[in-house]
């Protein structure tokens, strides 16, 4: 039986989808294994390192306890990816774009638009 070898593009696309699936669990411990130790995040505020990013997501989920994400499209270019997502909280839907940079298969940077 032949094994299917996943391409780097497919791995990154899967990692982006997994990131949003883990975001929907509202458990920062689920996100940590997906990110580098020196991860950087730029959103409503900036965060550097896993502990700071952890704090950001705790704040986000406390502010929006019903927040969920649905991935619409993922575009991968080398070790970068852009995800078009729909966020939903408090009965409102908002389209967002999130840009990721990866290092060694883990998320190194996240920028929310």
TrEMBL record:
<protein>
    <submittedName>
        <fullName>Ester cyclase</fullName>
    </submittedName>
</protein>
<dbReference type="Pfam" id="PF12680">
    <property type="entry name" value="SnoaL_2"/>
</dbReference>
<dbReference type="InterPro" id="IPR032710">
    <property type="entry name" value="NTF2-like_dom_sf"/>
</dbReference>
<feature type="domain" description="SnoaL-like">
    <location>
        <begin position="16"/>
        <end position="109"/>
    </location>
</feature>
<dbReference type="InterPro" id="IPR037401">
    <property type="entry name" value="SnoaL-like"/>
</dbReference>
């Amino acid at each position: 039986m032949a094994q299917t070898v996943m391409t780097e593009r497919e791995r990154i696309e899967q990692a982006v989808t997994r990131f949003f699936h883990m975001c929907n669990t509202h458990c920062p411990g689920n996100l940590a294994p997906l990110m580098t130790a020196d991860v950087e995040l730029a959103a409503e505020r900036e965060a550097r390192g896993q502990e700071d990013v952890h704090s950001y997501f705790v704040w986000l989920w406390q502010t929006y306890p019903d927040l969920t994400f649905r991935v619409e499209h993922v575009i991968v270019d080398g070790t970068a990816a852009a995800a078009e997502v729909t966020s939903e909280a408090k009965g409102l839907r908002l389209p967002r774009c999130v840009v990721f940079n990866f290092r060694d298969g883990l998320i190194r940077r996240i920028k929310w638009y």
